[in-house]
Write a structure and sequence with these properties.
Oligomer: heterodimer
Helix content of chain A: under 10%
Shape of chain A: globular
Number of helices of chain B: 1
Number of strands of chain A: 21
Shape of chain B: globular
Largest sheet of chain B: 3 strands, antiparallel
Strand order of the largest sheet of chain B: 1-2-3
Largest interface: A-B, 30 and 27 residues
Helix content of chain B: 10-25%
Radius of gyration of chain A: 25 Å
Largest sheet of chain A: 7 strands, antiparallel
Number of strands of chain B: 3
Distance between the termini of chain B: 24 Å
Distance between the termini of chain A: 55 Å
Structural class of chain B: alpha+beta
Chain lengths: 408, 59
C-alpha cells in the first residue's frame, strides 16, 4: 500500500469539484483518527433520521383538510400545530404538489393554511403561527446550556400570495421560554422559495433530557401588538420577550381571505450552514415517517375523510368483564410518548362489538389501565353482553373515529 | 380552551379518568387518565384547575 502525503487537494484549474473513487468503493477512517468535516455537508449530522418528523408533510393521519379552524391544535398534518387565537378563521390542508420548485426538489406535499374569515385589525393579544415541538431528549445534540453549544440552521420551502417578512421564533420551554428569533423574506408571490435561517448557539440553559416539550419552533404569520411592538434581536438567544417575536413581520396572512401560506421540506440542522453548504433534506420512506409519527398519534378507528375504507376498522379484541361492561385492549404498534388520551366521536351506533351479543354502542371511554404500550377502552352504556363473552370492537359508521393522542 | 372537566367512575369504582371538553364542543369525546403528567390534555386540566376551575364529580 502506498501513502500520499499532501496538505491540500484542490480541483484542477477552473474546476469546482473533486471526485473520490468509484461506485462501490469504501473509504475508511482508521480507528483513532479524526475526520474533520466541520464546514462540509457531512458536518454534525446527528443520526440517520431527520430531527424534524414529517418535515416533508407526507403523513396526515387525522385527515387531509379541515375547515373552520379558529383555535389551537393539530388538525391535519402530523406534528404540525396551528396556534390561532382571535385572529380569523382558517382552512388547513395537506396540499399536493404537482409543479413548482418544491415539487422539483422532491416534495409532493405541503402544509397549507388558507384564511377564510379575515381579521385585518387583530387585538393586541391575538396570534397566528405554525408550531413544531421537540422532546428534550431529541435535541440534546445542540448542547444548549454548555460551552460547546451549537448553532441551529432551519431550512424550508415556503410559498404565499403575500410577499414580505416572516418571523421565526425558537423557544426553550425548559428555561423560562428563552427565545431566539430570525426572519426570512418572501420575494415573489405564489412561488416556492427555499429559505435557510441561522439561529445562534445558547450557552445558557440546558434542555431537559426527557420526553417533555423542550424546543419549539414558531413560524409567525400574524399577530396583535403584544407580539410585535418590540425591536427584533435576530439570531441571539435572550430572555423571553413576547414583544419581539413578530417584530417587523409583514406577512399578516390574517388580513384578507385571499391569503394563504404553505410550507414543506422543513429541516433543522446542527451548526451553521448556508444555502450552498446545507446538507440535503433527508427524505424518508412514507412507512418510516409514519412510524415516527405514531409515537405521538395513532388512529385505530378512522373516518372516511382519512382516505381508507372507513367502517369496520378494528380497535381490538376484548371481553365483557362483567355483564354490560365491555373492555378492550389495543397493544400499540409503536410505544407512545406518554399515556395517550382517547379522542373519539360519539353518535348513535357509531361502534360495534362483534360478539355473541352483537352490540351497537354509541361511544368509548378510556380505561384506567391504559399506558403508553397498551391502550384500553370500554363501554358500559349500550354494551349488553354477558360476563366472559369475547368481542371485536370496530367502527360502525363513516363518521366514527377513535384516536390515541400523545402529542406534545 | 377548556370549558368543562368531569370525573368518570370506572368498573372498580375509581374516578381515574376525566372527560375534557374544549370550546363547548361535545361532538368530540376526549378522555384522559388523572395524574397523567406530560399528557397535553391532563396538563391543560391541571392549569385549568390552577386558574380556579373545578372538576365536576362523577355521575
Amino acid at each position: 500500500m502506498s501513502t500520499i502525503e499532501v496538505n491540500k487537494i484542490t480541483p484542477v484549474s477552473g474546476g469546482t469539484s473533486v471526485t473520490m473513487g468509484d461506485s462501490g468503493d469504501t473509504f475508511t477512517v482508521t480507528s483513532g483518527a479524526t475526520f474533520n468535516a466541520s464546514s462540509s455537508n457531512l458536518a454534525n449530522r446527528p443520526n440517520v433520521n431527520p430531527l424534524i418528523i414529517n418535515g416533508d408533510m407526507a403523513v396526515a393521519q387525522r385527515g387531509t383538510s379541515v375547515t373552520g379552524i379558529t383555535g389551537n391544535g393539530i388538525t391535519t398534518l402530523d406534528r404540525m400545530y396551528n396556534a390561532i387565537s382571535g385572529i380569523g378563521t382558517y382552512t388547513v390542508a395537506q396540499e399536493a404538489q404537482t409543479s413548482g420548485n418544491a415539487f422539483a426538489n422532491g416534495f409532493a406535499n405541503a402544509y397549507r393554511l388558507d384564511c377564510t374569515t379575515a381579521d385585518a385589525s387583530p387585538a393586541a393579544a391575538d396570534y397566528l403561527y405554525m408550531q413544531y415541538n421537540f422532546e428534550g431528549q431529541d435535541v440534546q445534540v445542540f448542547k444548549k446550556g454548555t460551552a460547546n453549544a451549537e448553532k441551529y440552521t432551519l431550512a424550508f420551502w415556503v410559498k404565499s400570495n403575500k410577499t414580505g417578512t416572516g418571523n421565526i421564533q425558537l423557544k426553550d420551554k425548559d428555561n423560562s421560554n428563552r427565545q431566539c428569533t430570525q426572519s426570512y423574506t418572501i420575494s415573489s408571490a405564489d412561488t416556492w422559495e427555499h429559505k435557510v435561517c441561522v439561529f445562534g448557539a445558547d450557552t445558557t440553559g440546558a434542555m431537559d433530557d426527557d420526553n417533555a416539550k423542550s424546543l419549539q419552533i414558531n413560524w409567525w404569520l400574524g399577530s396583535g401588538t403584544n407580539y410585535s411592538s418590540g425591536t427584533a434581536n435576530h439570531g441571539v438567544w435572550e430572555a423571553q420577550d413576547n414583544t419581539k417575536v413578530n417584530a417587523g413581520g409583514t406577512l399578516n396572512i390574517n388580513d384578507n381571505t385571499a391569503n394563504d401560506w404553505s410550507i414543506t421540506g422543513i429541516q433543522l440542522e446542527v451548526g451553521e450552514f448556508t444555502s450552498s453548504t446545507l446538507p440535503p433534506f433527508q427524505h424518508e420512506t412514507y412507512g418510516n415517517n409514519l412510524n415516527r409519527c405514531l409515537r405521538y398519534f395513532q388512529a385505530p378507528i378512522f373516518t372516511s375523510s382519512q382516505g381508507v375504507a372507513e367502517e369496520y376498522s378494528v380497535f381490538g379484541t376484548g371481553v365483557y368483564s362483567a355483564s354490560g361492561y365491555f373492555r378492550c385492549p389495543r397493544p400499540l404498534p409503536v410505544e407512545m410518548r406518554v399515556n395517550p388520551s382517547l379522542v373519539s366521536s360519539s353518535g348513535t351506533n357509531y361502534f360495534f362489538i362483534l360478539s355473541g351479543a352483537n352490540d351497537d354502542v354509541n361511544d368509548l371511554t378510556l380505561f384506567a389501565d391504559s399506558n403508553f404500550k397498551t391502550a384500553w377502552v370500554y363501554n358500559n352504556d349500550e354494551a349488553s353482553g354477558t360476563a366472559g363473552q369475547a368481542g371485536i370492537l370496530m367502527g360502525n359508521n363513516a363518521s366514527a373515529y377513535a384516536w390515541l393522542d400523545a402529542e406534545l | 380552551m377548556i370549558t368543562s372537566v368531569k370525573y368518570i367512575r370506572d368498573e372498580r369504582g375509581n374516578d381515574s379518568v376525566v372527560r375534557v371538553i374544549y370550546n363547548n364542543d361535545t361532538s368530540v369525546k376526549i378522555t384522559v387518565q388523572v395524574n397523567n403528567v406530560g399528557n397535553a390534555d391532563w396538563d391543560n386540566v391541571v392549569q385549568w384547575v390552577a386558574d380556579g376551575n373545578t372538576i365536576q364529580e362523577a355521575d
